[in-house]
Amino acid sequence: MNTIRSDFLTATGATTGADAQDDGHDHAHQTVPSDLALRVRALESLLVEKGLVDRAALDALIDTYEHKVGPRNGARVIARAWVDPAYKQRLLTDATAAIAELGYRGVQGEHMVMVENTPKLHNLVVCTLCSCYPWSVLGLPPVWYKPRPIVHAR
Q: Is residue 61 part of a domain?
């Protein structure tokens, strides 16, 4: 199991060794993984076993959403504009190109627009999270945006 999945499973309660409760003995114990961790493991194993998912591709996808897209990228764009007046001007003139300078580009983000608040004008941007939602600089849509389907027990 690689680091990414290990981090996830650790966060969900699947810990071993020093992370487990100290019982005064000099050996490692494994705590029982949470129901969620077990289901994730089972689903991933089944998909890999059936040849429906390549483990390396899954790792790359997880790495992308953990480290390469997200609101920290948007924050970097704004922070750069705060300290670099020339960049700020490029951002206001052609946001797509200026954001791409920092390596943030993609299908959802090819028509970026930057607006500036002033002492007399404050902008309110309302995003409907449609297909043009810029994941590269805002990250995944918030979990509350679309309610989860109600699943009835049988």
A: yes
Q: Is the pLDDT of residue 69 over 90?
A: no
Looking at the fold, whether 20 and 39 belong to one and the same domain comes out as yes
- Catalytically active residues, by annotation: 127, 130-132
Domain span at residue 28?
Answer: 3-67
DSSP of the chain: --HHHHHHHHHTT--BGGGSPP-S-SS--BPPPPHHHHHHHHHHHHHHHTTSS-HHHHHHHHHIIIIISSHHHHHHHHHHHHH-HHHHHHHHH-HHHHHHHTT--SSTTTT-------SS----------TT--HHHH-SPPTTSSPPPP----
pLDDT digits (tens, 9 = 90+) for 107-143: 777 888 899 999 999 998 877 777 777 878 888 777 7
